[in-house]
Amino acid sequence: MTITEESSTVIPLGEYADGDFYPGYEPRLESRPFLAEPLAPFTRADEGRFWMRDSQHFAEGITPASMGLLEDAQTWGTQYGAEIVGIPPTAGMVNRIAGVHVYLGQCPITSIWQMGARAERFGAFAGPRLADFASYWAGYRAELEAAYTHFDGLDVDAMDRAELRAALVDTIAFHRRAWGVHFEVMYLLAANYVALFGLVTDLGLETGQIPKWLAGEETAYLRTDEELWRLAGRARELGVAGALAEPTVEDVRAALEREPNGPAWWGELEAFLAVWGQRTDETATMDRPSWAEHPATPLGTIREFLTRPEGHDFAAARRDVLAERDRLVDEARASLTEEDRTRFDAALASNRSANFVWWNEEHNFLIDRRVHLPVRRLTLAAAERLVADGVLDAREDVFFLFRHELLDLLEGPDGSGGPGDCRSLVTARRDYHDHWSARGGELPPVVGTVPDAVNDPIMTELFGLTPEYFATIKAQRATASLSGFPAARGTVVGTARVVRAAQDIDQVRDGDILVCGGTTTEWTPVFGLVSGCVTDTGGTLSHTAIIAREYGIPCVVGTGVATSTITTGDRVRIDGDRGVVEVLG
């Protein structure tokens, strides 16, 4: 990472500003009611703004088919949510693409009039929803679950080409709708959290304690982890653990068929997948199967859990978290005057009833890792027709078509409205993807002009783009000591395991210190194995911080340069109380 010190800190875009992108790409913006700024490849003008590589959600780069999903989510979805809620200083976020890799930036609002008008609108919007958050969120949950029931029940095999296209259009509309809901709720909760943060600062309390005051609520992902640990225990009980050591899903299934109790255990796995398997390992990624389609990830996790016979006591861990939560709240209240205690209690109660720490994990199961699966299902059904018609050579070739190209191919009986030579186009794009995907390790974690702060509460609290983070980026080089946010207390020394993508978490071994760009929900199972965690990005409400606290392991997030400084095999000391990471050698 090259940093130049001038009047401001600039990390040059270099070759990433050349506007290079997938061959044959022609941007076609669909109807976006609140689109502040479109997704685009980098240009030289972008060097005047700050951009963070989103290795949390898009570590491996993105295919053309996934580009529409990304636009629905981080570009349109954030801008829609910020507009609906009326967040005063931000119009949401926007994406830039370097090769096939995703960067994220802010759409700031600088107009005093706009900020004032939005502040008025925010107050009217937020009040009644925060007052009864449970009913507000339950209404959206019911809407989303009804949509899944509808789309999962479609008989795609009975559809002709026109019906497939119409159903695909519906799934796209639902996908966009769900991301609008996602960021509406997320901005509402983030703003409420920031208000608590401001009050705690004014009261002279330690802001780093806030997430701990909100911890301890059960989520779908912790329940998923419990089930995975249970399946590991059942594998021992049924005597089939050896069969799970096979390297592939197919090999595991074959080995289980040779065991007397193997089919019974596989039946329990299928029952688990029926409830918890409608999820993928990355957000808004078309080319990755769900766990239910191909259970490589849960099988790999269970295999690693089998190396720890004692398992993980979720009940005890939750009791510890709740006890610490109550103790820390009591300590904070005891230091306040009666008047300040009343203000503190009201703000804390609001944040517990509209709990961002809980919701940020819980909603992922319903939206982030689930909502693109209807689009994937209809896309693959359409691909099978295009293969049968001789338009594509293989079903997976559809991942190298942009959304509008696929819809054009389904228009009419012969697909004449789509690209003229899909085979050559797919080949060129696959080569482009492979070239840039292989270069992922070279790309800098941040580029452009580094500010002192950003005004988007999601970028601050989830991605950890705090003033302290920017100060670290400006000042820090590759050193033996890194600083970040102290996310989970405790000190540990261990061997580092640098993991750059969720699909590589099977590399993690019992007792490792996990070092990564940042984690999302699909990483949760490894927290039952690792002894500590360090990330490049992440703030008080990041998945990493939340889960590390739930599992009780030392953690430092938002170091800025952990993955470019620490190497797998290094001995590392994490001080989760001070937010310091030392590389011992």
Automatic annotation (TrEMBL):
Transmembrane segments: none annotated. It comes from the Bacteria. Signal peptide: none annotated. This is PEP-utilizing enzyme. It holds the Pfam family PEP-utilizers. It comes from Actinomycetospora straminea. Residues 509-579 form the PEP-utilising enzyme mobile domain. The lineage of its organism: Bacteria, Bacillati, Actinomycetota, Actinomycetes, Pseudonocardiales.
